[in-house]
Inverse folding.
């Protein structure tokens, strides 16, 4: 899980770069094919690499925004909040988000051809999927190495509508990373802002395995 981490240049980008421009001789074409060193690194790759510097570590967090305050009992309030950069692989990162003794949540970041995808993997204690799971969205702009935003996708909107959560159909999630300093998870929509910030200066004990994962 905690192996050296580096994102390869997306194959589509290499193919397009190799096919563009005027016709050249085979030797010229071969010489001009971009490599991982010659293709400019994208902000999403830098963003993922920043998170991956903490692979295998866990960190405590605190709620810094929860507006408006929930009317019903809030599952996050008063609970220890811990993120664990648990799995770093070639095309993404899995980050379980532990809320007290609730180990049901994992943020799944996946590199796509043109950006980054965030999904929320929610499980029950027996490992089965929650009815509200794998919702999220894809980036629609380049973002930066510090912050990436994920507007809700159509699949998630259909899920929210089906389950009576129409208020969530305008969700925009975001993550921010300053290596060695802080990590933030954010949910925003008109009239709602929820944000948790984690202190990356002091790793904490590794939390239990998230539900439904080996």
């Amino acid at each position: 899980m905690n192996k050296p981490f580096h994102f390869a240049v997306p194959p589509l980008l290499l193919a397009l770069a190799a096919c563009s421009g005027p016709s050249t001789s085979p030797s010229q074409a071969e010489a001009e094919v971009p490599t991982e060193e010659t293709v400019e690194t994208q902000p999403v790759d830098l963003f993922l690499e920043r998170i991956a510097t903490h692979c295998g570590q866990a960190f405590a967090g605190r709620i810094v925004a929860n507006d408006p305050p929930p009317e019903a009992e809030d599952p996050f309030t008063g609970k220890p909040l811990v993120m664990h950069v648990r799995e770093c692989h070639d095309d993404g990162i899995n980050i379980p988000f532990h809320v007290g003794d609730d180990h049901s949540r994992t943020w799944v970041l996946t590199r796509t051809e043109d950006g980054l995808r965030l999904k929320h993997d929610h499980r029950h204690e027996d490992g089965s999927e929650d009815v509200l799971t794998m919702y999220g969205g894809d980036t629609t702009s380049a973002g930066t190495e510090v912050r990436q935003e994920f507007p809700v996708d159509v699949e998630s909107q259909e899920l929210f509508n089906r389950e009576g959560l129409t208020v969530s159909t305008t969700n925009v999630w975001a993550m921010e990373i300053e290596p060695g300093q802080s990590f933030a998870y954010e949910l925003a929509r008109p009239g709602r802002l929820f944000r948790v910030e984690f202190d990356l200066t002091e790793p904490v004990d590794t939390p239990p395995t998230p539900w439904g994962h080996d």
